[in-house]
């Protein structure tokens, strides 16, 4: 293992421990893989990256990450996709108040932080969860159409 990979592994271990999550080998691998992705990924997409890993282990890893505020899930019709959370998320609350955008051409779902719902509002009710989801054509695919 080279020095860069050692530092990356240590950083990942620290991030998992900060979220009260035991840094097992599979959790470290899944975290590092998700951190290198621009788009949200389904269980099948994550699984295809780890050829010899057990599907149940990957699923449990993703569910643990979701419970601990490490990833947020995005529901697309009948498929759930996962994307790493920002540091502000925790076991108690996900600060997932941005738009999730699905491109109908490249089939990628991305988090659009520039389109978000405010965290605080003067209301007499409590919002526990917001799901903002849009379908369309991303800027990269629009360019290729022109």
Tell me about this structure.
This protein is α+β, with helices and mostly antiparallel strands and 146 residues long. It has one domain (3-145): Arc Repressor Mutant, subunit A. Helices cover 37% and strands 23% of the residues. It is built from 5 helices and 6 strands; from the N terminus they run H-H-E-H-H-E-E-E-E-E-H. The protein has helices at 3-18, 25-35, 43-49, 55-67, 139-145, and strands spanning 41-42, 71-76, 79-84, 98-103, 109-116, 132-136. The strands form 2 sheets. The protein has a 3-stranded antiparallel beta sheet. Residues 1-7 have low confidence and may be disordered.
What oligomeric state best describes the polypeptide chains here?
single chain
Low-pLDDT ranges? 1-7
Number of helical runs? Answer: 5
Widest beta sheet: strand line-up? 1-3-2
The coarse overall form would be globular
Keywords:
single chain; 146 residues; alpha+beta; Arc Repressor Mutant, subunit A; three-stranded antiparallel sheet; three-stranded mixed sheet; 5 helices; 23% strand; disordered N terminus
Helix/strand layout:
Layout lengths: L2 H16 L6 H11 L5 E2 H7 L5 H13 L3 E6 L2 E6 L13 E6 L5 E8 L15 E5 L2 H7 L1
Parallel strand pairs: 4-6
Antiparallel strand pairs: 1-3, 2-3, 4-5
Helix pairs in contact: 1-2, 3-4
């Amino acid at each position: 293992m080279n020095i860069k990979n050692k530092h990356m592994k240590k950083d990942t271990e620290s991030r998992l421990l900060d979220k009260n999550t035991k840094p097992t080998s599979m959790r470290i691998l899944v975290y590092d893989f998700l951190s290198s992705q621009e788009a949200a990924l389904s269980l099948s997409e994550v699984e295809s990256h780890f050829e010899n890993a057990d599907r149940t282990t990957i699923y449990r890893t993703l569910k643990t990450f979701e419970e601990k505020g490490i990833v947020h899930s995005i529901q697309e019709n009948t498929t759930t996709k996962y994307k790493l959370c920002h540091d502000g998320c925790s076991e108690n609350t996900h600060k997932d108040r941005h738009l999730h955008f699905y491109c109908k051409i490249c089939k990628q779902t991305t988090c659009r932080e520039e389109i978000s719902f405010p965290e605080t509002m003067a209301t007499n009710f409590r919002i526990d969860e917001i799901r903002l989801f849009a379908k369309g054509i991303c800027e990269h695919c629009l360019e290729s159409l022109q």
